[in-house]
Design goal:
9-stranded mixed β-sheet, Rossmann fold, 25 helices, 696 residues, alpha/beta, 7-stranded parallel β-sheet, OB fold (Dihydrolipoamide Acetyltransferase, E2P), binds magnesium ion, binds adenosine-5'-diphosphate, globular
Length: 696
């Protein structure tokens, strides 16, 4: 980023050496210039200088005083060496004690002024500090200013980071190119690059820090949004397959219901895209149960009628199987052949299927992401649909497109993750968006309750009532299998272990509901077993389905009216909302019971959000506020580059401004090829260095 002479390798600096430079590398720091972008975690305000009399007892602060006499070395009875130094100012005496640092007896000369930084204790009429940090007046680095506190690693102390940062700010910062065009800085009131870098490390005051932060966040978000806008621009220019004039109206005659206005609008958006001659890259976002499958089916139908193939990718086998059933029931009557390809289609059946696909006898292929990673050859792939897209990232979208011919296939993404709109714009910044903001008619909101262990027997009674009325019940509990790997490795309590799917299902079947049929399904089961149990549930044979969150997405059994979630406090609100979306799909009144053993008020308060609203977007916003963006951005599933300073949750305002600026910039100079945009372009390329494919 800087120029070569000043941007030296850290290992070449005196005071660093090979051992420390190895440790610094762990923090991602190899050159001095890297330190410039390694921002403090927090700051300590050490600006105020106290006199001995004013120094507040019990506080850690700076006191300026003069060394009054030569330090005294002594030895405590325990054998510990200690150095005592007496200092004074006009208001009193400061007694210093240093342990284990006998060399300090030669460090102070009487008459010299020092700043001491430490915790203040009273001692007689004067003050005392133990092992304070000290600096000679006029040579302050860690006192008398706002001192940065850096993210550290074992063997690297903050003092080293501070001195490296000082060096970087002095030597490298002046050589860093200004990436923001002047008009952007003027319009959004942003300070200059060098000022920002100086003040993020060594703020003169908190106003300076605030403006440095603002600028750096803006810069980061603008770099990101520029990258996404460039990508979108490129896609829009791309030539697209032109599909036939097969209108939503014609298609809707095939559906067993009248589509909602929002569904129709989404279909019209698709119709417009696929007949425009440009490549479609569209996100259909709609809350659980809003009817996205019908919209996907429209796309598949359009492609098939135009002599092209459609591939629909689902995140789980369960969901793929269900989509295959739904699409077959709509499309096979009009002669469109739908097939299923998952990991469990093997041997001769697989071979036959792949041949039919290659010949073009199969028009719609439904499957898991295995669809694209295997040597699957399409005859003429015209449309790729990804359902429940939050599991796939920006990078995967590129891989999908690669399976097409010379002209890339259209891409349609369906997402039920109720991501707050602004975030959606980020993650899907390269896409057009259709929002389905209307549920099919006749849905009653799912009545939701938060209950404690004391209500367990009543809850089982309620299960019985529902089943007695011919309804079915989902019972979700956190899975042992899942919580070890993907879920973040949280250790399971014995209580949760007990509730692990199989044991719990067995308990329910034998002890609680011996007269009913309890089934269970979890992620580690064979696809065949899962399929068998799901179809037994779909047909009503199984009345109570105990499961892990494998049913979180998409599963559709309208007769199920009660969703019980055990240990509900372990889940994010958005995830619970998804789970709740499994019920309330039919004409019967539906319920969701969130069970928690947690006595903490905040845990219960959080769950209560779900009892108060059914608006997925509002819930997502609340989740974002309470838990931070990790829920949406955990495991970097979105595929976006990692950000250093900006935080999607709290910097929404700046995000909007940065997007605006990026849009304007890219509209005028699509590839950022003008000379004045070169620094920014380089920054964009640097940020997206992990997914260079998005620029192809
Ligand atoms: P999601 O958006 O969660 O994928 P689905 O496509 O699974 O929703 O639809 C949920 C349920 O609503 C399905 O049973 C589907 O048949 C039904 N459905 C979808 N659209 C309509 C509609 N316009 N009118 C009535 N029922 C509908
Ligand atoms: Mg769905």
């Amino acid at each position: 980023m800087g120029n070569k002479e000043v941007n030296v390798a850290l290992s070449a600096l005196s005071g660093v050496g090979p051992v420390r430079s190895g440790k610094l590398a762990k923090l991602g720091l190899e050159r001095l210039g890297d330190v410039l972008w390694h921002f403090p975690l927090r700051y300590e305000d050490r600006r105020k200088m106290y006199t001995v009399r004013e120094a507040p007892e019990g506080m850690t602060c700076c006191v300026k005083a003069m060394v009054a006499q030569d330090p005294q070395l002594s030895r405590a009875r325990s054998g510990v060496e200690l150095v005592k130094v007496r200092c004074v100012d006009e208001t009193g005496t400061l007694h210093l004690t240093f342990f284990h640092q006998s060399y300090l007896r030669r460090a102070f000369s009487p008459g010299d002024q020092y700043i001491f930084y430490g915790r203040v204790e009273r001692q007689g009429r004067g003050l005392a500090m133990v092992n304070p940090l000290f600096e000679k007046e006029g040579e302050e680095r860690y006192t008398g200013r706002i001192v940065p506190v850096y993210p550290l690693t074992a063997g690297i102390h903050n003092a080293l980071m501070v001195s490296l940062a000082q060096l970087a700010v002095d030597q490298v910062a002046p050589t860093v190119e200004e990436v923001l065009p002047t008009w952007v800085r003027r319009e959004y009131g942003l300070c200059q690059q060098e000022f920002a870098l100086q003040n993020i490390h060594f703020p003169q005051n908190f106003e300076g820090l605030a403006s440095a932060r603002k600028r750096l966040i803006f810069e980061e978000l603008m770099t990101l949004t520029c990258g996404l806008a460039m990508l979108k621009g490129r896609r829009q220019q791309g030539e697209g397959l032109v599909l036939g004039q097969h209108t939503p109206e014609q298609f809707c005659a095939l559906l067993p219901f009248t589509p909602t206005g929002a569904q129709t609008r989404a279909m019209e958006d698709i119709f417009h895209d696929v007949t425009s001659g440009r490549s479609m890259n569209r996100l259909v976002q709609g809350d659980v149960g809003s009817g996205k499958t019908a919209v996907a089916a429209y796309g598949a139908w359009c492609a098939a009628l135009s002599g092209l193939q459609c591939a629909l990718m689902a995140p789980t086998e369960l969901l793929a199987e269900q989509h295959c059933r739904t699409l077959s029931s709509i499309l096979e009557p009009v002669g469109v052949k739908v097939a299923l390809l998952t990991g469990s289609v093997k041997g001769a059946a697989r071979k036959k299927l792949l041949q039919e696909l290659e010949r073009g006898d199969i028009q719609v292929l439904v499957g898991t992401h295995a669809l694209f990673s295997q040597p699957v050859t399409y005859h003429k792939l015209g449309l790729v649909i990804a359902d429940e897209q939050h599991r796939f990232g920006v990078a995967q979208r590129g891989a999908l497109a690669a399976k097409g011919g010379e002209i890339p296939p259209h891409v349609l993404v369906m997402s039920a993750t109720p991501i707050p709109r602004t975030l959606a714009l980020m993650i899907y910044g390269d896409m057009e968006v259709s929002i389905i903001d209307e549920l099919p008619p006749g849905r009653t909101p799912v009545a939701t309750y938060v209950v404690g262990e004391d209500k367990r027997q009543r809850m089982y009674g309620f299960v019985r009532t529902q089943v007695g009325q011919g309804r079915q019940v989902y019972l979700v509990c956190p899975a042992v299998e899942e919580s070890q790997g993907e879920e973040g490795g949280e250790a399971l309590s014995p209580a949760m272990d007990l509730k692990a799917v199989t044991t719990y299902a067995k308990h329910l079947q034998e002890q609680v509901f011996p007269d009913l049929t309890v089934g269970f399904v979890h992620g580690k089961m064979k696809a065949k077993e899962k399929e068998a149990i799901m179809s037994a549930f779909a047909s009503g044979e199984v009345q109570i389905l105990v499961s892990t969150t494998v049913i979180e997405v998409g599963v559709d059994v309208p007769n199920a009216t009660l969703m019980i979630v055990e240990n509900a406090d372990r889940f994010g609100l958005s995830q619970l909302h998804q789970l709740r979306g499994r019920v309330g799909r039919g004409k019967h009144e539906s319920f969701c019971v969130l069970v928690t053993a947690s006595r903490s008020d905040t845990a219960r308060q959080r769950l209560r959000v779900l009892t108060q609203t059914t608006d997925g977007f509002q819930i997502a916003q609340e989740d974002l506020r309470l838990r931070g963006p990790g829920d949406f951005f955990g495991q970097r599933q979105h595929g976006l580059p990692q950000l250093k300073v900006a935080d999607f949750a709290s910097d929404l305002e700046l995000l909007n401004q940065a997007r605006q600026a990026a849009q304007t910039l890219v509209e005028g100079d699509g590839e950022l090829s003008r000379p004045e945009h070169q620094p920014l372009r380089r920054r964009v390329e640097h940020m997206f260095r992990d997914n260079p494919e998005i620029f192809h």
